[in-house]
Amino acid sequence: MTEEAMPAQAAVRRTRRWPYIATIVVLAAGLFAFGAGYVYSTNSAEQWRTTSEETSRDLGSMTADRDSLAQKNTTLTSQLGDTTSKLNDTSSQLNTANDRIRSLANEKAKSGTARPCWPSSWLLRRR
Questions:
Q1: How far apart are the C-alpha atoms of 73 and 64, rounded to whole Å?
Q2: How far apart are the first and last CA of the chain?
Q3: Counting C-beta atoms within 10 Å of the first and last residue's C-beta, which end of the chain has fewer, N or C?
């Protein structure tokens, strides 16, 4: 081989080598992108799982609170019904007593024995 052939062969080798280097660089970049995507998706899935577990715990807590308040509401509604019933009974008794008082006052007025509770001299002095 001649000395002139040596640089030509080196130039040919360099010309043949760059597609291999470019292929290796592209494959390395693809592998890096794939690895980054895998890490991101794994991390994202773990975050979704953690968020899901927190939400489930919160939902369980809120459900227990709601059930407790529903029970309290039922108890208060029952107490309100009892209190309303007692109030209606008391109102009925009051109305009956008022009717009886009016009846007695009317009877007394008709019989003519009604006298004022306060002496008239006292009423005149008060004015």
A1: 14
A2: 149
A3: C
- Residue 87 tokens read as 């109030």
Residues 6+ apart with CB under 8 A from 109: none
What's the CA gap between 49 and 59, in Å, rounded?
Answer: 15
Residues 6+ apart with CB under 8 A from 123: 116
The tens digit of pLDDT for each residue in 88-98 reads 999 999 999 99
List, in sequence order, the alpha helices (H) in the chain.
5-111, 120-126
Token look-up 């019989």 returns 111
- Measure Cα distances from 95 to 89, 98, 109, 122, 124 in Å: 10, 5, 21, 32, 34
Average pLDDT for the chain: 84
